[in-house]
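Archive entry: two folds, one per protein. Generate the first.
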Amino acid sequence: MQFMKKEKEGARQIKPRTDHLPDWGMISIFSPFTIDNHIFFHYNWFMYVKQFPYSAKEHKDFENLNSAVVPKGVIVAVGGNEDKEHDLLVLRKIVALIKNRSTLIEVITTASEIPGETGKMYQRAFDKIGNTTVQFMHIHAREQAEDEQYIQRLKKSHIIFFTGGDQLRITSTLGGTIFLKTIINKYYTEDCIVAGTSAGATAMSQTMIYDGESSEALVKGSVKVTAGIGLIQNVVIDSHFITRGRFSRLMEVITSNPGHIGIGLGEDTGIIIRKGCLIEAIGNGLVVVFDGKHIRHSNISSINSGEAIAVENMHVHTLVNGYGYDLLNEKFLMPLELEALSPS
């Protein structure tokens, strides 16, 4: 494994020691991108452990091995329609992740058709939580995403929050801009929170669902995917998962891409992703995890578009508040197991 940091004299290659980790298998690094003359790499989930259960120490050894690529920031993806009037459980959890006495939140309304109304709802909600300063970025044109004032505001923020709406507005407006690169850089290098709800959650992964009716899913070609903003690799997120009956929709995507993990988020429910791999379920509903790596057979490559899909041995897990999942080791985590692996 190699991680490179660009310097004036040229590229220097760093090879961390692995001889003290006899039980760890191969790790694959890929997808380089450059910000401020530094080369960063997203990393694939090709991490294999020979023995289960693994210990907190073993997980710490892996973090040390990958300290160059493990993001310092935390992701929170919410399934939409989170409570903004009563217990505000999910929003309170997001704010509580920041230890600062006063928290600066930048709310990005790019996905929304009604940014003004959306902004007012979140202003009232965060005001109820208290100890927060909320600002809004109503960015709806690519040239706005190059504005230096927005870049500087991002750099000062503690929480970056993408609202719901249409995820294609996020990717088509922000993709490839300095604005988005600043968010990615901040996520990898700083203790910060990047959160999103509904479309804002769906857009976070490298592979993004953007269309497809639930009633038509699990037939070939019914679900449309494109590139997301790329904060999470080899994961596909779907929102409003239970209410809108999107089980078969996500199953089709994972059958087509068995190397990915599918995450279906119920409403008023979300996941916290720490260290780029440790998932904790939060909220009042259900999180559904689809693991396609164990699929033994599917007919998707041999049928025509519009025909029904057969698939054998798709692994499915359900999580509720306090339970977790390790993306690296594809392992369901009980609350005590998750607590042992998560920072205090």
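Generate the second and append.
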Amino acid sequence: MSRTGSRRRSQETGAQWVAGMEFAVPILIVIAAGFLLGSFGAGMKHIAPMRWEAWWLIYSLLSLVLFPVAWALLAVPSLWEVLAAAPGDAVAKGMLFGALWGIGGIMFGISITYVGVAITYGVVIGLSAAVGAMVPLLQKPEVVSSPAFPCILLGILVMLGGVVLSVYAGVRRDQQQVAAGKQICGLKTGKDFRLGLVIVAICGAFSSVLNVGYVAAGPLAEKARDFGALPRNSGFAAWVVVLFGGFLINGGYAAFLLTRNRTWHTFRGPGVGKAWSWSMLTGLVWFAAFGLYGQGAALMGEMGPVIGWAIYVGLGLMVGTVWALLGGEWKGAAGPLRIMLAGIAVLVAACCILAYANRLPRGLPSQDAAVLHTQEGAVVWTVAKS
């Protein structure tokens, strides 16, 4: 009896440990992705002496085409067969949403010239977190009646509150710097400012559809699993399509500017080697962030694109703020800095709420979802044992 009891306790302990790892591993992967998302922008301070459009074309080609395809070829067996066998409407929708996201990225730069960096960044991040999480959530009507739904909704609302505080802090900081005689990009007044708010709202809505495109291209991930891809890797097949749609816009716009401005020659010349290096590194970090997010979201299960996306974007905003603080961008703005720190605290609370929501029941899964969950549990168990 003692041996049987000991074996049973050992099995229960092992089961609890596996359950804990099933919860912790996806969250940790998304946290790592959020850190990279908040850090990749540092490379954009190293464009000179290359022209922006030349730098952007290199960055776009690497981050949206070459790195995604290379990673997918390693992670997804028979990638080209998967793409050929995938439903045409899923491929078209994925590319369409990727292209819309690409338009949002271009409008981001335009928005800054009207309303400044703080408002543009805050509105885009806020809408990206909210719309990017809510659209996939509303596509799962069975979740609305589940115990997890109120917690997910609360987490998204709290995150929006943190974003609002962050935007307000940034605006206050810019106002103080203008009063001190510093020049701030954007911050127009009157009709131009109102026009800028419209542009930044459209920009934020378009920027949020990247995650919607990932959900729309879900059949590609299912097809990748049919060809033997692990559940945590299957999403890379979807990302290849979605990000290529984004490249068509970003790369096309950069090529247009290179032609109009006659700046193709800036790819070479004295000192451009450093710009090449920073462009490639920035592209790698940006896609690594998305690659990790995709794995974390897959391991979270069917609600990964909802909970994981909100945590990912919120952490990106927090990490970016910390880098700005370390870079001296908040020097001499003690009051706005306190507001920003309060916003970060609210964002941390939102991430904790959403992480907790990921542990709550989400209604009765379908048979396919149950099989997928079992497969994902096996993946986590494999990772944990190794």
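Annotation attached to the second fold: The chain has one domain: 35-381. DSSP finds 13 helices and no strands in the chain.
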